[in-house]
Amino acid sequence: MKTERYFILSCPYDPHSGPSEEFENVIAELDDLTAEEAEQVVKATELSEASPYPEDVSDVTVWCESESTSRNNMASHLLRRRRADAIREALSDPDTDYDQRHYRFARCAVWCAEELRKLRTQDTTRQSKRRFEVHDTTTGKTLLFDANNTTQWGPVNDESEQERKPDGMPMWDIKVTLYRHIWGHWTKLDESTSRGQPERETPTVTRISDAEAADWLVRNDFPVPKDISHLADAAFFTPGPPATKNDKQPMDLTDEQFKTLVNPPDSSLDAESLFRPAYRRDHEWLKWVKDKGMTPAKIRNFWNGMSDEERRQICPSCSDKIGGTDSKGKKAGLAVVKEGVKKAKKERDAQTNQESIPGIPGAIPGRSPLP
């Protein structure tokens, strides 16, 4: 994307004789513009009501010319530079009468050029921010999130499940964005800003299933991709008994999971392999909340204070400590606990609903299979 200096030029135009180029006038000399941007400045100045010519001139022609082209006629180029310097000095002089049409025209061109440069810079910055640091709520680690090769929905404001001030206002401004990679997996990104504080917290990311993604899209009025549109019905309440694939199989069980639960291939099957790695850990945390009234911060500290063996006994597949000892690490650990307890609550409620559906022999109490 090549940029260079451009002259914005004008001359009177008569419908009968055409443009009078011998009366060429320099409107402005603008640095660091692309050819497309210079053309946009020309269009904007033509649309403006300002005109550097007397009332009796019926029309004006405006065009742009790059410095490299202008140098082909060096005498004309030097004269344009001199006129442009005079315009620049006049615009910086507080005693200049800006109501004069010529100066109004010049100020319009300068302002448009500045806006175009800002937009170009913002676009460049936005592209560079396609990779940024995030906290993974599953592992509690700080990772580099790559948003390239993804489709994005949002961001949308989220005020649900937040701590609130005495006046009822949320403690945080939270924006949620949903990403889907070209390979099909989903990531939910939460960006939080403390009310009244300009500094934004490090975003947190959570991997979610197709069913959770469909539910989020429906609730936020986004179209659901065709390949998961059949899951969108679960986000709507339908009076009557729970929907099933048949009289025995619930909708949220895949065919393979249902067959395995009803007819296990052998007694040595590790049922935990049917569920997400942090299932046991999160349900233990939920138990602490229910039985001991522990807050997410206390759960984080208690979990990290346990020995490796104690954590492995609770959840062999996800027994690592969460977060870190610095302020960012503690916040990341807190986010892991909140997300884990939230998932455990959903799975507990789903299991409660499933128990009301007859004809599922071999179902494992207290556990909800992956969507």
What does this molecule look like?
The structure is a single chain. Strands 6-5-10-9-8-7 form a six-stranded mixed beta sheet. Strands 1, 2, 3 and 4 form a four-stranded antiparallel beta sheet that branches. The protein is elongated, with a radius of gyration of 32 Å. With 371 residues, it is of the alpha+beta class. It has three domains: 4-126, no CATH class; 131-235, no CATH class; 255-354, no CATH class. It is 38% helix and 20% strand. It has helices at 35-47, 67-70, 74-92, 101-128, 210-219, 255-262, 279-292, 296-305, 308-314, 327-354, and strands spanning 4-14, 18-19, 25-33, 59-66, 131-136, 142-146, 150-157, 172-181, 186-194, 204-208.
Q: What is the compact description of this entry?
A:
By secondary structure, this protein is of the alpha+beta class.
How do the strands and helices of this protein lay out in sequence?
Blueprint: E1 4-14, E2 18-19, E3 25-33, H1 35-47, E4 59-66, H2 67-70, H3 74-92, H4 101-128, E5 131-136, E6 142-146, E7 150-157, E8 172-181, E9 186-194, E10 204-208, H5 210-219, H6 255-262, H7 279-292, H8 296-305, H9 308-314, H10 327-354
Parallel strand pairs: 5-10
Antiparallel strand pairs: 1-2, 1-3, 1-4, 5-6, 7-8, 8-9, 9-10
